[in-house]
């Protein structure tokens, strides 16, 4: 008996064999957290692959902050990092495993490991503290990678896969195996590798489009091929990972889901190496908005309202803003779901339709992703109780007393300069203060004063606090403008050389002449080639710019002499 999808034409008739319904065996995590085993599992790799974006490196405290929000968002798996990369990465993964991994209804905490015994052992020692730990190990399987990177034969790769997955399984009951560059691998060999991994104890098989090479129809066909040819595949979860080099990452994932993939590996805002990863928010909202189309692939009636993921969609906006703030990766205005223009309408025809009925030009509500109306909420006479109450409504109920106090002081400073404090202002203030709270930099900006004008030589006087010896240092400098003068002064004070400013971006949080200005800078450390970011917000754009620049230089100072291992360029 054929099935016709709701909204499809008579020619879009799909037979039951083509619906690719998967009925997975419930895992221990499914059973103990009460999550629907028929869902699409959301594997978030913002803290691992996303952090590999140039300039996106986060401190351990920042990673922990993001991990807590990801758990609140409802992701099923957090890939917290690559533990062997550095001592800092190991500590960050361990802390996330200890805290977020033991929250009520916790996600699985996963670490990445190359197919090396030392990598796998180190990964286990980092994630083992979580209630649901996972080891994610990988080896390349495409001919081009095996020849030029691994310098190993197919037989050697099969042997390493068997040995290392067996070892990982001896440590951890939940093991994910990835065949790097799977979409450029010989399918027949891929079937062999995955069959060996399942036999050795892998519980999840990940299919990575490592270089963003494939197309939706190819990805779907490969997933179907794996389900037909991999021995033991019915007892494991098929996962997909992919990059956006050709702009098709999300489309590829949606096709893979149609083919039977039931875990997707994605990042907030689509951040990641090169053109980035598949964006979590786009995948989740596609499954949410087009539920009637995807339901039959899950054995459900088209009109079934049960969610296809465990994601709390109203947490999407806040998670997006937090990741953008901490990584310095500015979201382009036309970005799907979370871009500034995603729910904006300028066309007169569109505006008329929206006023009559939102559904004329909107397929989802802004409120569905947690984007609250930008109403006026607080003023300079508002007290601490009202401040906390409003932050709780915005989802910041987990703030510690110290974090709340810092944010409240900052709120009062802004309220003295700005008559109207909006929800977006509050979010910016809190995110800024939380970022400063976790800033492990050596120097703190105490004072910034500039003199400039069309008949003046721009001059800046900067006072910094050296937090290691509690000493102040004041430096004055001139420049081509107020920001340049401030940057020259800060650079002199820190004594850091071989720095190149790559990008300087100013944006306003809200409309109005008194709006908070957010500044993002991106620097290159010419001694290492690494890129670092800094970000800050203030009603005074020069102060925000100086704080952002100082934050970036602090990151340079911390990282110099300590270059972490990259997972894809190590030796097997």
The CATH superfamily of the largest domain is known as: Aldolase class I
Give the number of domains.
3
Q: What class, by secondary structure content?
A: alpha/beta
CATH class of the largest domain: Alpha Beta
Strand order of the largest sheet: 3-4-5-6-7-8-9-10
Radius of gyration: 25 Å
Q: Could you state the oligomeric state of the chains shown?
A: single chain
The number of helical elements comes to 18
Largest sheet: 8 strands, parallel, barrel
CATH architecture of the largest domain: Alpha-Beta Barrel
Describe the overall structure:
Its EC number is 2.3.3.13. One of its GO terms (biological process) is L-leucine biosynthetic process. The chain is an alpha/beta fold and 572 residues long. It folds into three domains: 282 residues, TIM Barrel (Alpha-Beta Barrel), CATH 3.20.20.70; 61 residues, no CATH class; 120 residues, Alpha-isopropylmalate synthase LeuA, regulatory domain (Double Stranded RNA Binding Domain, 2-Layer Sandwich), CATH 3.30.160.270. Helices cover 38% and strands 19% of the residues. It has 18 helices and 18 strands. The strands form five sheets. It has an eight-stranded parallel barrel, surrounded by seven helices. It has a three-stranded antiparallel beta sheet with strand order 13-14-15. It has a three-stranded antiparallel beta sheet with strand order 16-17-18. Strand 17 and strand 18 form a beta hairpin. Helix 2 runs parallel beside helix 3. The longest helix has 19 residues. It starts with a strand and ends in a 13-residue tail after the last helix. The N terminus is likely disordered.
